Amino acid sequence: MELKLPFVSPQQVLRALDDLHALAEAARALPEVEHRLTERIDALETRAGQVLALGERIDGQATRLIETAEQAEGRVGDLLAHADRLDSRIDKAEPRVGEVLESAQALTHQAARLADALPTLEQALSVVDELAPTAAALALTVEPLQGAAERLGRIVDRFPGGPGRRGTHGE
Predict the structure, then answer these.
(1) d(Cα 81, Cα 89) in Å, to the nearest integer?
(2) What is the pTM of this model?
(3) Model confidence over 104-123: pLDDT tens digits?
(4) CA-to-CA distance for 161 and 116, rounded, in angstroms?
(5) How far apart are CA 134 and CA 8, in angstroms?
(6) Are 161 and 169 in contact (CB under 8 A)?
(7) Domain residue ranges of the chain, discontinuous segments joined by +
């Protein structure tokens, strides 16, 4: 059997040499490409580490935020309970407020009456002040007569039919 080689043209040989040259140059550039890819992968790994650390910080802050929200929710519950207690106190105080208002109105009415009577009271006090010296003089005049009035009363009691004798005459 005879081996036949395919016919190869010079252009095909030149093209094959060009392709071989391109492959050789690509092979020479591979270490540099590998170095750049390694640097990029290292940068990506560093960045991924930073992203993971940031994610952990965010997770920690989210956990604290959730805890704070839960505490706030508890406080809101406490505040609502306190508001309910205040509301019930207000409900209990409302009738008292009405009573206090009624008392205040009555007091205002009495104060108005007192204010209306004040001029009359002032006049009465003025009359009392005017009569005070007369009353004092009258008291001084009547005081010496007191003893005489008592003696006269005892004498009258001794008269027949007087108060001391009435019970003896068979009344």
Answers:
(1) 12
(2) 0.36
(3) 888 888 888 888 888 888 88
(4) 55
(5) 166
(6) yes
(7) 14-118
